[in-house]
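Structure ticket #2291
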Amino acid sequence: MSTQLSPTEIQQLQQILQDELERKALTTLEHHNGDLEASFDELWQEKFGRKDYGKNKSLLQLTLNEIRAEICGDDGLQGKIKEYTKNPGSASLLNSIIGSLVAVAAVNGIPLDAAIATIVVLYILKIGVNVFCKYTEQDNNS
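Resolution: structure written out below.
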């Protein structure tokens, strides 16, 4: 299943995201008709080159799994995401989330720039942070 932003959603984001790398993420999203996963893959490959991650493995999902604990376990970052969902026009709040994700990822050795982090944040906002955290939660019975 593909998670996709509508042209209207992309246009609204263009009004609030002004950073060069964030704008690059939006341009990539437009090119892929709002498909977040295809946009993530293109930006990742552009930055790091094409790598084989195995059949049927989503690079976006692998990245989300790696940063899950940082997003779902960090009340500050999760709180910012929840606050943004209450006030989706706040450029400063959205930029703060993107910047925080870049910083948290860097501390954990995950190479995210602002363009890639923008796609990750938009994906989480699209599906909802609570859904993301519950869906990716480790099953203790496994």
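Closing remark: The mean pLDDT is 85.
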